[in-house]
Structure to design on (292 residues):
């Protein structure tokens, strides 16, 4: 009977906090990289645009 | 670049606030799952990012059809935006799923139908950008891109239904349960609330990012046209 109770007892919850932290770190890092990439590409386009406008003004 | 519209500013703020609320729901409101422990909390964002990835590819499909019927460049820009955002979110899904699988399945990766179809879908859309890089003429690039986006969209239902069609160990969250699945669990009401709230939050974040990417695409198009004008 004692063995039966021991076997029926639910197992203790494993400590998987490290995996959870790793999972959320990946989620937020990838999203942050994408947002930074959008910002950086926008910045580069602004530089290109100002250069092109300068050339256009010089030509006209 | 045109000034940011007020609606987009509101959407930016809403996305940040919703993300904070979703984090509260995931970490505080939803209880810890008894069998898997804290790693189960990754599941809320894992499913939400998968949903946004697939939604973004459907946006690209619609944009592809619209481009082929109208030849309007704006649809090409929308299609590119959808695929880029979809790729980012699907990448998050694959990596977060792998991290969840390590303690749940005792492996980082297994050749399961769902994992394979998801990875194939990611690779199909990475190839979309490789295809575009190889075509110089903008109209030709847009036309081929539209056709590719339409064909590539067939991978979306294939991935979604893979866990329902084939025998797999991946849990079925929406719909009937899979007897072979490992790491499945019954959601309590707070867990269900956190799950649907995360889906809603990431939908808003996805729309917000697609909108930003469309604006960037339009700006790039404007710079490209000016470059052509100056060069000639």
């Amino acid at each position: 009977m004692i063995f039966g109770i021991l076997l029926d007892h639910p197992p203790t919850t494993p400590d998987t906090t490290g995996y959870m932290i790793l999972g959320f770190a990946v989620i937020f890092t990838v999203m942050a990289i994408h947002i930074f990439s959008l910002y950086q590409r926008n910045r580069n386009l602004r530089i290109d645009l100002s250069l092109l406008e300068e050339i256009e003004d010089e030509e006209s | 670049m045109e000034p940011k519209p007020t609606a987009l500013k509101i959407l930016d703020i809403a996305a940040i606030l919703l993300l904070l609320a979703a984090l509260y729901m995931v970490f505080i409101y939803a209880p810890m799952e008894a069998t898997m422990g804290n790693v189960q909390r990754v599941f809320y964002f894992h499913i939400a990012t998968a949903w946004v990835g697939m939604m973004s590819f459907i946006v690209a499909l619609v944009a592809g059809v619209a481009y082929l019927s109208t030849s309007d460049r704006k649809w090409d820009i929308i299609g590119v935006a959808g695929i880029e955002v979809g790729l980012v979110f699907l990448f998050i899904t694959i990596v977060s799923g792998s991290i969840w699988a390590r303690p749940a399945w005792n492996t980082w990766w297994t050749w399961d139908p769902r994992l394979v179809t998801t990875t194939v879908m990611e690779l199909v859309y990475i190839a979309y950008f490789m295809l575009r890089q190889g075509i110089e003429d903008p109209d030709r690039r847009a036309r081929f891109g539209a056709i590719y986006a339409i064909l590539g969209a067939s991978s979306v239902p294939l991935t979604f239904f893979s866990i329902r069609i084939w025998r797999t160990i991946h849990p079925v969250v929406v719909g009937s349960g899979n007897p072979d699945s490992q790491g499945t669990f019954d959601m309590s009401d707070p867990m269900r609330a956190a799950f649907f709230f995360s889906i809603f939050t990431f939908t808003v974040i996805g729309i917000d990012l697609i909108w930003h990417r469309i604006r960037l695409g339009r700006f790039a198009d404007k710079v490209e046209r000016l470059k052509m004008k100056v060069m000639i």
The interface with chain A takes residues 1, 32-42, 45-46, 49, 85, 88, 91-92, 95-96, 99-100, 102-103, 205, 209, 212-213, 216, 219-220, 222-223, 226-227, 229-230 of chain B (CB under 8 Å). The longest helix of chain B spans residues 189-231. Chain B has a mean pLDDT of 92. The two ends of chain B are 23 Å apart (CA to CA).
